[in-house]
Amino acid sequence: MNTGPTGLWTWTQRFTVASVGSFVGSLLALLGGANKVAVLIGVFGFVCPMVFGMAYLLLPSYVGKTLVDQRLAGIHFGLAYVGVSLLVADQFVTARILLRPLGVTLWTTGVLIFVGSLLATVGPAAVGTVAGTLGGSGRSQRSTRLATAMIPVAVCYLLVGTVALLMTVAPLGIGTVTVAQVTHYYLTGFATLLIYALGMRLLTAFFHVSLPRPVVWIVLVAGALAPAFLGTFLWIDPWFRVGGVFATLAMLGYAALVLFVILKTNRRRVGVSGIALGAIAGGTAVVSVVPVAFGFGDPISLAVHRTLILAGFFPLTIVGYAYLFFPITGGQFTGANPRAARVTIALLGAGVAVQSVGVALQYEPVRVIGILGSVIGAIGCGYLLGCRFVNG
Questions:
Q1: pTM of the entire structure?
Q2: What pLDDT digit, counting tens, does each position of 215-271 carry?
Q3: How many alpha carbons fall within 13 Å on the CB side of residue 304?
Q4: Cβ-Cβ contacts under 8 Å for 333 (sequence gap 6 or more)
Q5: Total domain count, the chain
Q6: Nearest-CA neighbor of 269 among 341, 377, 348?
Q7: Which of 38, 171, 383, 387 sits between 20 and 30 A of 294, alpha carbons compared?
């Protein structure tokens, strides 16, 4: 049985390419006016699978382990994308009684495989890390331990979001859980918290910069608390506002850490521009929605927030880290150079900026131009990463 890292790299690459393709699909859905489908593909086809793929590769290595069985990642890949396909198809067909429950069931099974395989691989070490977070010797070590301790917290939010997703399936008819709550658990609790936690370690590892400990702790603690309030008390004051404050502190703190790294390092890696633009998009997104949380905003602010998160923070951050892990210059193909990679990042950044302006002004031609820019940038990223995997 091959449980080495080579197989995991393969599945991480497949998750990456499929996720980029899903991002293109979500943008095309926006062009077609299918906003709900765009969000569905963005969350379940792009953001979560990309995080799954990177987590399979990174999390076991943090505790010196390899996944108990690499085939589990492949099974999860199939379940996730068949499940997403059924959920998307459910939005278009009339006789859809079984599509949504079946899609949710397949997705849930994949999540359980993901959690179970990681728990079997890193569980004992993770428990020891959490227990030793406050008792580590040295402040730097405690910050690293806290970042690692946030990983199981993020996985717990994934499980909570999956339970909430099951509760939205009509035959169950349990409670009043909404898809918006599921999205908050998945995006804010699972994906964003993992970006914070892994980012603390990856930024240090790639750029050899020691991060300011107080800011690290603010980002991680606030980032861990925010989803509990946002998902559980959606639009219920005052707790929803508390969650908004925590989310704002975490995202702005993360953006400050990224800026700190850029100013301190002499290493000009290609991916850093994507990470930086992603942090800017995330910071702008949380600031734009603060008035809404306190009852002073309008639906347009919320739409701008969604655009900046789904078309800015996540794709730019993910592509930035992907370019760090899979250097384009390591391949032998047309476009295997830093300039091509930077162009794709610039297109993604410009695309989300123009989209946001179009949404804010409620001027459709501008929004469409922004979406087209993002589509071209995403296709370029998919080409570079795909060729890198095949020819690298």
A1: 0.91
A2: 999 999 999 999 999 999 988 888 999 999 999 999 999 999 999 999 988 777 888
A3: 26
A4: 387, 388, 391
A5: 1
A6: 341
A7: 38
